[in-house]
Design goal:
The chain is an all-alpha fold and 397 residues long. The protein has helices at 12-47, 50-84, 90-115, 120-144, 148-171, 176-186, 190-197, 211-238, 241-259, 262-273, 277-300, 302-310, 321-343, 351-367, 372-395. It has one domain (12-395). It contains 15 helices and no strands. It is found in: Cell membrane. The chain crosses the membrane at residues 21-43, 55-80, 92-115, 121-139, 151-174, 180-198, 284-306, 318-338, 350-368, 374-392.
Length: 397
């Protein structure tokens, strides 16, 4: 069978062209998502004070963490569909979106004093979370069916919905609060567009996806994103507003190294769901190569990287660029391992990452100095721990 369709296998050159086209489309969509995501703090660094920039980065982190179940929903639906065929996904998708936003609302009273945020910021994050999570339904269906060109279009739509309003508000100088309002409202244009894009005539042939499948995938992706954003939140908590603002610029490099090879995992997931060890080996090699390149580039041009990420006021941090990039590169490898564990139905797929999260909090709070470098090195150590535990766990499956 072809790696990209459920039709009879095509000749090798045709298969290669299809894979290349699909990979290019998803890569472009992923790059667009990353570019818009990076554009927000980059514009914020030029439009906002250090304190507001830190608040913006914190709200983005909260929204990203609350929206992680959307990615888990997408992965669970894609795996279920690749294995079993089309199934009903409406009920589980609505439930996942409601729980995600509801959890953020419940935590709001605790988040306000701990993160020093106005009450409206977590509420706006919850408002934007509902359509962002629900979008995982249609993205998962397209990914599971290996309709990668439509998936790429859907990823682009979601990217504009998540960041378009916020970018517009910041560019127009509307201020942080008004920009967050615009971002939350624009996010609601995503679902109707994805309904049209994902239309399919496939009959429902499989049992509905079970809550346990979604819970496993959501737990794994939530652990992954909590780990990758935990250092930013810890910086907000442990450092001064000025230092945490500087740290937030460094995490732009972390996210770049984390999400740059995203296309590899997206294309590999249906094959991983079918138990392909070859797909896993190729995915790890490609992601490792991407990470090595980005870390080397950051080491050579660290000041330039910080200038691009935050402007000339942050070039003095250039010596730390490779460390921030290395953290993201290691987490990119962890993400491949976690997707493989979810696709293979492993129990406690997220355990290695949750252990690393706990270790990060303990070390940053009680062992490492409460400085920018203390949080930075603690984050890299947690990433390496997560990879080591995930790799050992994979070999013991």
């Amino acid at each position: 069978m072809s790696a990209l369709t459920d039709k009879p296998a095509a000749p090798a050159p045709t298969r290669a062209r299809r894979i290349a086209t699909a990979g290019a489309a998803v890569a472009i969509a992923g790059a667009l998502t990353n570019a818009l995501g990076y554009l927000v703090p980059v514009i914020g660094a030029r439009q906002l004070s250090s304190a507001d920039l830190s608040a913006l980065a914190t709200v983005l982190g909260l929204t990203a963490i609350a929206s992680v179940p959307g990615l888990g929903l997408q992965i669970a639906i894609a795996v279920h569909r690749a294995r079993n065929g089309a199934a009903s996904t409406t009920r589980i998708s609505l439930l996942t979106a409601a729980i995600s936003a509801g959890a953020l609302l419940v935590l709001t009273p605790a988040l306000i004093p701990v993160l020093d945020l106005p009450v409206q910021y977590p509420l706006l994050a919850a408002l934007a979370t509902v359509p962002t999570v629900y979008a995982g339904r249609w993205l998962g269906e397209m990914q599971g069916d290996q309709r990668f060109l439509r998936l790429a279009a859907g990823m682009a739509v979601l990217a504009f919905g998540r960041y378009g309003g916020l970018v517009a508000g910041l560019v127009l100088g509307a201020g942080l609060t008004t920009s967050l309002v615009a971002g939350a409202l624009v996010a609601w244009v995503v679902p109707p567009i994805l309904v049209f894009l994902c239309r399919s005539r496939k009959p429902l042939v499989a049992d509905p996806i079970r809550g346990r499948e979604v819970l496993t995938a959501c737990s794994a992706t939530l652990a992954m994103l909590v780990a990758s954003y935990a250092d930013l939140l810890l910086a907000r908590y442990l450092l001064t507003p000025e230092l945490s603002g500087e740290y937030s610029v460094g995490t732009v490099l972390t996210k770049g190294a984390l999400w740059a090879p995203q296309v590899v995992t997206v294309l590999a997931l249906p094959r991983l769901a079918q138990g392909s060890k070859r797909a896993l080996r190729k995915a790890l090699l490609l992601v490792a190569a991407s990470g090595a390149f980005l870390v080397a580039a950051s080491a050579v041009a660290g000041s330039f990287a910080f200038r691009l990420a935050g402007g000339p006021d942050y070039t003095h941090l250039g010596g730390y660029a490779a460390v921030f990039a290395a953290t993201g590169a290691v987490y990119a490898l962890v993400f491949v391992l976690i997707n493989d564990r979810v696709a293979s139905g492993a129990k406690w797929a997220a355990a290695p990452v949750w252990v690393a999260c706990v270790a990060l909090v303990v070390v940053a709070e009680f062992v490492a100095p409460h400085t920018l470098t203390g949080v930075m090195w603690s984050a890299l150590g947690a990433a390496i721990l997560a990879f080591a535990l995930g790799f050992v766990g994979r070999n013991r499956k």
